[in-house]
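[09:14] KT: can someone run the structure on this one? pasting the chain below
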Amino acid sequence: MPAFPALNAPSAALLSRLAALLGPAGLLTERSDVEPFCTDWRALYHGHAAAVLRPANTAELAEAVALCAREGVAMVPQGGNTSMVGGATPDASGRAIVICLSRMNRVRRIDPVDQTMEVEAGVTLKAAQDAARDAGLMLPLSISSEGSAQIGGVLATNAGGNNTVRYGNARELVLGLEAVLPDGQVFHGLRRLRKDNTGYALRQLFVGSEGTLGIISTAILQLQPQPRAVEAALCAVADAAAALALFAAFRAQDPALIQAFEYMSGAGMELVTTLVPGASLPLSEPAPAYVLVELATPRPNADLRAALEEVLGAALEDGTVSDAVIAESEGQRLALWKLREEHAEAQRRAGASVKNDVSVPVSHVPELIARASAACAALVPGIRPAPFGHIGDGNIHFNLVQPEGMDPAAFLAMDHRIMDTVADIVRDLDGSFSAEHGVGRLKPYMMPDWRGGAELATMRRIKAAIDPRGVMNPGAIFPPDDLPDSPAHPS
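[09:31] RB: done, structure tokens below
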């Protein structure tokens, strides 16, 4: 693929036209206003931007993109800025413009017959969930950052989350999509059809593209019936192999009941209960590992408690589970989920951490955890492995916290060696180096080795065809040599 042309800083004339188009609320240029949009959630990337655009609707977004494209100005789409891989952070040049869709925040309509929701890109996932619930339906996608993450970013990264084991990733929920292309044209694909066999499914190009092909402006999402019954339990297990044995037992009983099945290491749980206020272990003593299982069904008169107790009783009897607690109220259920959801925050409070969002076939998860823990301990003595995540679909966040007393900067300087150590094992187990967080700016260097040949070449051709100037989110996904001004490492 030929190199992209050099990109330009926005001219005073362009900023003036953008100000006239978007109004005072739609253009931020003061340094103090722009800076919050230039650092990622993990504080790994600290960039600069010439301005932040905040369009109020698709027409404004399309015109703003067209103006920037004509001047060859880089655009960085940004949702709730919750990326774990720096995927929505501008580079250090100060020439890019950040485009934030937070003002495009309407739930346009919910169709209870079709069980669909039409929602603008700036709506937070939590707000969309609440709107679906108010309509007696359920938006099943659930992630830790749902209070901040916006629909556009959630789809652009093909987010997974806690309920993937039952409902699939974000991609599986998208029926229709509207997006603004890099030249300002609008892709009109807001169709509620479950069957539409008319050529390429272009909407799926934008899902998981991390803003490199255009900016998602509106989506039609598939909803589900609201569960009539939900039961959750926290279980103590010896290791990941025991966790998978418990998963197999629940699947053998009724796979349609499993809404979430989450794994947590003993080390990770200790960080949560020690460092996060209000988090406490509701079991008699700590365990080497834990499982949080949630069953749910829309069926009336379903006795989920009996189903849960049946499997847990047998697991306690045969030693698969050493202890368990079942939530007796909604408050207790949320308290159990707090133990799972606060893992990332607890690890941040414990010091620097290296995050590996990886996936392997479900059957290989125990081997992944054992081998990667040993390999990282050999590389960095005293390192604290704290793996957790979606063991039911094979996605483990194999996170590693710095040794106690080690300088955080020195630990982070080893991030690529640590990630590569884990990645070598993941590759050997037929896995992926990114399961749900994406590639962003953190992992493009891994793409040629993992996705080289025809796969990466095809991605490059698609990028060049849709965005020939390389103005859309340069530095994300593609290796540094493919796009100008794209740092391979955090700045």
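[09:33] KT: thanks! The chain is about 35% helix and 20% strand.
[09:34] RB: yep, looked fine to me
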